[in-house]
Automatic annotation (TrEMBL):
Pfam families tied to this protein: DUF4200
Coiled-coil spans in chain: 8-42, 76-112, 146-202
Keyword Coiled coil included in the entry's annotation: yes
Residues in the signal sequence: none
UniProt record, GO biological process: spermatid development
Organism of derivation: Caloenas nicobarica (Nicobar pigeon)
Keywords from the named record: Coiled coil
Cellular compartments per GO CC: cytoskeleton
Domain of life: Eukaryota
Lineage: Eukaryota, Metazoa, Chordata, Craniata, Vertebrata
Record keyword ATP-binding present: no
Name of the gene: Ccdc42
Protein name (record): CCD42 protein
Length: 236
């Protein structure tokens, strides 16, 4: 019996062990299924998170681009504001310089007004004692008229002086030309006088020569006549 029971017991133990192994395997399979399900769930969650992360990244990139655009616009605006500020500062500095120059000019004019106030008093006295003037402006207008007339007179005198200078130059040129012509005529006259003296001398010479020729011709004619008469007598 012990010999026949031992295989049976071992078989039962093996079956028991196989059941335990099967149960453990099933438990492991169930745990594996649960683990795989958990992994699949976590994988889906991971994909979902990945999609969310992708959406977030795209949104972040878009927001960054918008932020960059806004930052660039803000930078450009800041640059424009700084340029406007610099320009306004320069304009303010230029306005200050102009104001300083105007203050100096005003002070200079004030000093001149104060300096020339005595002339205003003088002009007022002139108006008082001169019935031809009603106010200071009439005196100033008369002075401007006289100054303009004086200027015109000076210009006229300058023009006359210039015309006199030009006339004198032309007269000197004309005089020099006429003196040259007179000298040339005098030279020609001397040459003509010399020619006339020579001609007179030639006339006297040729007159004497002509007289001699006429005397010779007369003698020759008388001789010819005598010879003709002699030849005629001889011929007779």
């Amino acid at each position: 019996e012990e010999g026949s029971l031992s295989p049976f017991i071992r078989l039962q133990e093996k079956r028991k062990e196989a059941k335990q192994v099967q149960k453990a395997l099933e438990e492991k399979q169930e745990a594996f299924k649960e683990k795989m399900a958990d992994i699949a769930r976590r994988w889906r969650e991971l994909h979902a998170k990945e999609d969310q992360l992708k959406t977030y990244m795209e949104k972040s990139v878009r927001m960054l681009k918008e932020d960059d655009k806004l930052r660039v616009q803000a930078l450009k605006k800041a640059i424009r504001e700084r340029e406007k500020k610099t320009q306004k500062e320069m304009e303010l500095l230029r306005a200050k310089k102009e104001l300083e120059a105007l203050k100096k000019e005003h002070q200079k004019l004030s000093n001149q007004v104060q300096k020339y106030s005595v002339f205003k008093k003088y002009l007022e006295d002139v108006v008082k004692i001169s019935p031809q003037f009603e106010d200071i402006q009439d005196v100033i207008s008369r002075y401007k008229l006289l100054a303009r007339m004086h200027k015109d007179l000076q210009q006229s005198q300058e023009k006359n002086k210039e015309m006199c200078k030009q006339t004198k130059v032309l007269l000197d040129q004309y005089r020099a030309e006429k003196e040259d012509e007179i000298l040339q005529y005098q030279n020609e006259l001397e040459q003509l006088q010399q020619c006339f003296g020579q001609a007179q001398s030639d006339v006297r010479f040729w007159t004497t020569r002509w007289a001699d020729i006429q005397n010779t011709n007369a003698k020759n004619a008388l001789m010819l006549t005598t010879m003709k008469m002699a030849i005629h007598n001889l011929f007779q």
